[in-house]
Design a protein that fits this description.
With 268 residues, the protein is an alpha/beta fold. Helix content is 43%, strand content 19%.
Length: 268
């Protein structure tokens, strides 16, 4: 387990490891599959995941989360990564599950679900995007690849707020961004240049919840909200816009009230 996992408060157990991908499990109860953002290791959403596990225990229902850690994958395409994650998940899932995906994790999750080999009860999409402007993708790659590492690490918090919106001054996610090999990010960013997820996001036969930060600077929140409002499909959809919140939905930013609403939706 990498040293970055030391930032996790709860005990996560590795139940699978293959080609740079690990499945880590924590908690007990209804099963939720968590596919994190582009950092791959979960720091973008692990705080909220652990809060949900602890609060679910207090509610008497419980919650079990399997974190899909793809930080060290070396796939040569988005389709290859999707196929790999789908195969590993199929080996360890029994019956319908809840899927929770964050940012880039939504790209992976929708492609997996479109293949209809994994049965799910509902899907939580946090900070989803149909498309990111190419200029932002290109600028992100330039920053990652060409900025001297010492400068990049020093200015990561400021750069992150400029890219994502409201962020804590100190957070394990920022440490991941500062220490990650830029080649991994550039490889994953390059996959987003010529794809649109509108078709995969447009239709669903299972309930979905979409959470978007009103002050998200990576995407156009209004455009994303309007897209989901007009492409709900046949199943129920809940769209929640979080004030004073950016692309990264950390518990200390979104607040306890929203966290409790999320837990209620997951347990319903």
């Amino acid at each position: 387990m990498s040293t970055l996992k030391q930032s996790f408060r709860l005990q996560w157990k590795i139940i699978a490891s293959e080609q740079g991908v690990q499945l880590l499990v924590c908690g007990d109860g209804p099963l939720l599959i968590l596919i994190p953002g582009m950092e791959g290791s979960g720091e973008s959403c692990i705080e909220l995941a652990e809060w949900l596990i602890e609060e679910s225990v207090r509610s008497g229902i419980g919650l079990q989360i399997i974190l899909v850690d793809y930080k060290k994958e070396v796939s040569n395409s988005l389709d290859a990564l999707t196929t790999l994650l789908e195969k590993i998940l199929q080996q360890h899932l029994k019956g319908p599950v809840i899927i929770w995906s964050q940012s880039f994790g939504n790209v992976i999750a929708t492609r997996i679900l479109s293949r209809k080999n994994i049965k799910i009860n509902k899907h939580l999409l946090m900070s989803p995007f149909v498309k990111i402007p190419k200029i932002k993708l290109f600028f992100g790659m330039i920053i990652m690849r060409w900025t001297p590492r010492a400068w990049y690490r020093r200015f990561t918090p400021g750069i992150s707020r400029w890219f994502f919106g409201p962020m804590p001054k100190v957070h394990p996610f920022l440490d991941v961004l500062a220490c990650e090999d830029p080649k991994n990010y550039c490889r994953r960013i390059s996959w987003l240049f010529n794809i649109s997820l509108s078709e995969q996001f447009s239709y669903s036969t299972f309930p979905r919840a979409v959470w978007i930060g009103k002050d998200d600077k990576l995407i156009n929140p209004i455009a994303q909200i309007n897209f989901f409002k007009t492409n709900q499909g046949d199943a129920a959809m809940e769209i929640k816009v979080l004030k004073n919140t950016g692309h990264m939905l950390f518990p200390e930013i979104i607040g306890k009230e929203y966290c409790l609403q999320l837990l209620t939706w997951l347990q319903a």
